[in-house]
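Anyone? Bumping this.
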Amino acid sequence: MAAALTLDGVSKRYGDFQAVKDLSFQVEKGTICGFLGPNGAGKTSTIRMILGLQAVTSGQIGILGADDGRKVRDRIGFLPEERGLYKKMTPVDAIAFFGSLKGLPIGEGRRRAKEMLDAQGLGASKRKKMKELSKGMAQKVQLIASVVHRPEFVILDEPFSGLDPVNQQGLEAVIRGLAADGATVLFSTHVMQHAERLCDKVVLLARGQKAFEGTVTEARATSKRFLELEGAIEAVQAAALPGVSGVEIVSEIDGVRVLKAALGQGGKGQEALKAAFLGGLDVRRFELREPSLHDAFIGLTGDNPDQDQSVKPARAESAR
Amino acid sequence: MNRTLLIARREYAAYAKTVGFWLSLLALPLFAVLGGGVGFLAGSSETTRVIAVVEDGPQAVGLAAAVRSALAEDGARRARNEREAVEAVSRTTGGLGGPAAQDAASSVSRERVRIVETPAAIGTAAPGTAQETAARDYLAADRPKADQIDAVVFLTREGGRPGARIWTSRATDDRVETFVTAALKSANRKSVLEAAGIDAGIVDRTEAFDPDVTAFSPKSVTGGEISFRDRAPVFIGLGAGFLLWSLIITGASILLNSVMEEKSNKILEVLLSSASATEILAGKVLGVALLTLTVMAAWGGMGAAALISFAPERAVDVGQILLSGGMLAYFALFMAGGYLMYAVLFAAIGAFCETPRDAQTLMGPIMMILVVPLLVMQLALRTPDAPVVQIMSWIPLFTPFLMIARLPSEPPLIEVIGSMAGMFAFALLMVWIAGRAFRAGALSDVKLSWKSFATAIRGGGK
């Protein structure tokens, strides 16, 4: 499959701060790629470089056959992390305006805007001003504004942030729809569940460096299956169970512990459970867990994606 | 339509659709009318001061008659001025507005002081302290309106020199004092001249003489007598200079606020993914320029309509001045250069700011720079070839204001062309600097300071 996006040894430095280091990956046409990493991992900087908003310090980027995102900006749709639209404009006007900047005639933009707003359940808000809309509604409008020109490549920077669960589900459907229509989607997130459900491929970023590139299944496979045990059990007792290669105490209250016991290569949960009962361990809960993307991420990077990885220094980022 | 024009159109529409824009459009003509109206009302509502004059002792005999005579002369002079004003209005309006002009002139030029009979309580009191006490009591007491007087003037003559002590009900009002001073000066002049043996009739005629002065200049339009046509350039220069100044302040402020709004609402990043920083900057500058042109056209149209309606001869003069020697083209070029210089600078500052407070760091010094041409512009009008004006005209930041003010006085062509070239060269430099700063500021999260601004300019689009 042909690549819609290729990064080759891309680095970005702001003064002494290395935001992105030697990053290489590619996204195939028509696929959904999750660009994952905790806050401050370098996702937004990378996206800005892909769009051509910022210059790379070193390395090369190829997007839709061009060596600079600015050359194909009309074929790209972009939803930034920090969102905003003109407060005094109506959704239809705002969508048509941003569409027109991408080469879509104003009239056609207005027509599509109305159609898409109706489809998103915002038909009644078409004539309201943006400042009158709720945050969730405004985010939907902004998403529509970023794809109204039917781009070949859609970049969504943290598209789920600030949305309630219902709207998150709706957005997932939109992303699937974009891909079904043939667009390539790259979206950044630090919430692994979305990526797990949507992505054909994920790229994990930690401290500006690529930690993993592959499918969700491949990512999960990098992490071990594990047992979750709860009861008055010592960590050493759990570690002695057959097939267990390591134990971590998750919590402990009044002598009752929750333990996470990783299963080694060929380790079987049933054998460990049998041994626990035969050994007389006080097991009150036993669960065999497949690793999630979240677990894989922690395993691959050693970081919790839900937490900030680094404090962003105040820096002068330059648009091009 | 290209992106620059699309952004310009949005910028224009965003402001042109607001009520505030239309209010500001009407504000200048409204204030002009209100200003004139308030001045007229203030003049016409000024009440006549009612005074009583008392000759303080036998040595002051004759001074009351002199004061009355001065008042009569003043009345005659007012009547003459009123007649001339009404005739001038009738001439310029072709007879239209005559009665209205008569009413207006009458209300403004009516008597300011009236002398009445001295109240008996004061007139019958013994001269000196008793009389002054009576006057003070009279002024302090509440009396029916018909009996009220505003001041009692005791006329004196000591050592042959006329003088006065004035008791007034209004301590802050010096109108009576001024009138009496002038009247006594005149009385003294007469008595001195008469004492020197000059006939009283001659003295009176001399006092009443009002010279007819006419100024000529070889540089006047006719090559002889100086007329309104020759003096109008000064007013046009002043008007154009202030117009440019207010438009730059207004336009640049709109730009600053617009960019700040986009920065704080996180719209700039979306725009940057759709258009280059240069296209955005150019679009915004163009959009606001069109907005200010709309304001200029509206103000100019209203001014022209008013001038043509009420003073068609003056309108012809103004038209001839503006259309002569490429004056309009020069105005347009200086305005374009001036606007460009300041607009891009304000837009670049806006790209670093999310609130007006953020912008204060850099706006303070820039506003101080903008005050300088306001001060020098007035000197440039009176003495357009003063060395300080000539030197400052070459400083690009001041060039548009000062040269526009000087243009109607026809400064040397080398100064016009040279300063204009310098201004445009500097404007291009500003566009380059502001472009770099705008690009850096648009995605920056650093706080605005002189240091960060300078760093952004050095770093540019890297």
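Late reply, but here is one note on the structure posted above: Chain A has ten helices and 13 strands.
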